[in-house]
Write a structure and sequence with these properties.
The protein is 79% helix and 4% strand. By secondary structure, it is mainly alpha-helical. Strands 1-2 form a two-stranded antiparallel sheet. Helix 2 runs antiparallel to helix 3, helix 2 runs antiparallel to helix 4 and helix 5 packs antiparallel against helix 8. The longest helix is centred in the N-terminal third of the chain and has 78 residues. The mean pLDDT is 85.
């Protein structure tokens, strides 16, 4: 079509028909502009389609990651409950000046298993590198950011206090003659342990921290469940699928 206009325009110019020449020249320009606009529209459509596919793939990966996280959070909360129960059991024994019993060996070991399982950041870091705008939903971006940043914050709190490391580095070498992680810790002198203000304070650290971590663990689980629901709605996925 453009070749036709060009040939016609040259023919008119040779014949001296200037007015008609200008009309054909303008027509040629309009056709070129329409072609460019169409090409841009098609390109934009392709880019939007690629972006939508990428977002869908990322959301599917989030479903996988967060589903795995919820299983870890279930295990984590059970562990925190176990730590809390054993810590309270030991505190009652010490405060009531009750005699040593073998069950305490397990409790002494369990109280030092107070550590945080972080979220799986793989997909989240990928999205951050691409730009959070790749997720089109404002509310979904907000809860994703809240969920993963709370995990990072909680881990930084754990690293700051390092109660479990304090037990392994100070309490166990000082007051115990045998130790197996999470299984048993046998006191060297139970009477000395009962009288130790250092151990009592360390036990209070555990009780205070495990309450804090348990509350955070519940909150993280609530956000994880909410996120899975929101993402599945975005993907039009039913829980039965």
């Amino acid at each position: 079509m453009i070749k036709f206009f060009r040939n016609k325009r040259l023919s008119l110019l040779n014949e001296g028909k200037t007015t008609r020449y200008l009309k054909y020249a303008i027509g040629e320009i309009v056709l070129v502009m329409i072609g460019i606009l169409l090409a841009l529209q098609v390109n934009n459509w392709n880019e939007e389609r690629k972006k939508a596919k990428l977002e869908k793939d990322l959301l599917i990966q989030f479903v996988r990651d967060i589903t795995e996280d919820t299983l870890s959070l279930n295990f984590e909360f059970q562990r925190f409950e176990n730590v809390a129960q054993n810590a309270e059991f030991l505190k009652e024994k010490l405060n009531s000046d009750l005699p040593y019993e073998q069950r305490m060996d397990t409790a002494f070991a369990v109280i030092a298993t107070l550590n945080i399982r972080e979220a799986n950041y793989l997909t989240y870091h990928k999205v951050k590198d691409l730009g959070m705008g790749i997720i089109s939903s404002d509310s979904l971006r907000y809860y994703l950011t809240t969920y993963y940043e709370s995990s990072e914050h909680l881990k930084s709190v754990e690293r700051y206090y390092e109660v479990d490391k304090y037990f392994r580095a100070t309490i166990y070498p000082k007051y115990f003659k045998a130790y197996q992680f999470g299984r048993l810790a046998i006191p060297t002198d139970y009477h000395l342990l009962k009288e130790s203000n250092e151990f009592r304070i360390a036990l209070d650290y555990v009780i205070n921290d495990v309450k804090f971590y348990s509350n955070w663990s519940k909150r993280r689980k609530e956000i994880a469940v909410l996120l899975l629901k929101m993402i599945k709605q975005e993907l039009n996925i039913n829980d039965d699928d």
